[in-house]
Amino acid sequence: MIQALKDWMELFKPRVSSLVLVTALPGMIFPGKTDLLLIFVTLLGTFMMSSASFIFNQYIERDRDARMDRTKNRPIPTGRISPGTALFGAYLMTAAAFYILWTHVNLLTALAAFGSLLAYVFLYTIWLKPRTEQNIVIGGVSGCVGPLIGYAALYNNFPPASWILFVIIFLWTPPHFWALAIYLKDEYKNAEFPMMPVVSGVKKTTEQIFIYSILYAISTMAFYFSGETVGLLFFFPALALSIKIIYIAWQFKQDPAPLKAKRFFLFSITHLFAVNFLVVVDRFLNFNF
User: In this predicted structure, what is the pLDDT of residue 288?
Assistant: First the structure.
């Protein structure tokens, strides 16, 4: 029983789903409007929808996963969970997540979360990932929906601030995953995934990572200047973090070693967590200057 629970949790990818939840949270935190029950239900439904998308992904890629050291011990390739059982679980979680978000939040939130799942499964996993080195650029749209979910839950629409945060994640996604692709280049090559380092080489990839890191940093700071309700408590830490990620990307460009790739990959996660955390803290304390 314990092993079965561990296997299902591995299918859910809770660490990755937690990043989606973090990006949904800023839209629901507003002085005088914060509803803890609404936040809990929205995050629960979002987690379930995100987890379902990861199960679909692992079901579709089970044969390729078996050829990569990083993924060959996942529950489906090893047979600990059968493909049919995993697929049934994914459908069940999708339906339950949509029902929870629709009935306890609103229809727009449910549609945003479901749209993210469709984009991840069909646009990214099935169509783009096996076919083009630009898979994560276009397919990364699926991972940008967190802010739309958060704002839709509170306002039942998508205000401009939600789209700025959407763009921030859109620009964050390619360098984040390209760094991982450099670190695992041989494994992606063995699995026949046309990731940029495999198709165009590491040099071009690090150049693209550097360019996207600059654009990502600019978009992060643009949130402060957008007229959205964040103040200097957000501005100064975000500025320091943005300068640092550009510097790390520049160092990586100069020396594209696997350990530098891993360093950038891990710091990019920290950066996105921190940016969203700063928005939440700034709003929660209403510390605007």
Answer: 46
| pLDDT tens by residue, 24-39 | 999 898 766 778 999 9
Nearest to 87 by CA among 59, 122, 66: 59
The Cα 273–Cα 72 span in angstroms is 28
> What is the tens place of the pLDDT at every residue in 141-197?
888 999 999 999 999 999 988 999 999 999 999 999 999 999 999 888 888 889 999
Of the candidates 207, 223, 144, 212, the one whose C-alpha atom is nearest the C-alpha of residue 176 is: 212
Contact partners, residue 274, CB within 8 Å, separation at least 6: 237, 238, 241
Fold of 12-285: Farnesyl Diphosphate Synthase (1.10.600)
Asked if 35 contacts 44 with a C-beta cutoff of 8 angstroms, the reply is: no
> Residue 32 has what pLDDT?
64
Other C-beta atoms closer than 10 Å to the C-beta of 233 total 19
- The residue ranges of every structural domain in the chain are 12-285
Tokens of 82: 């059968």
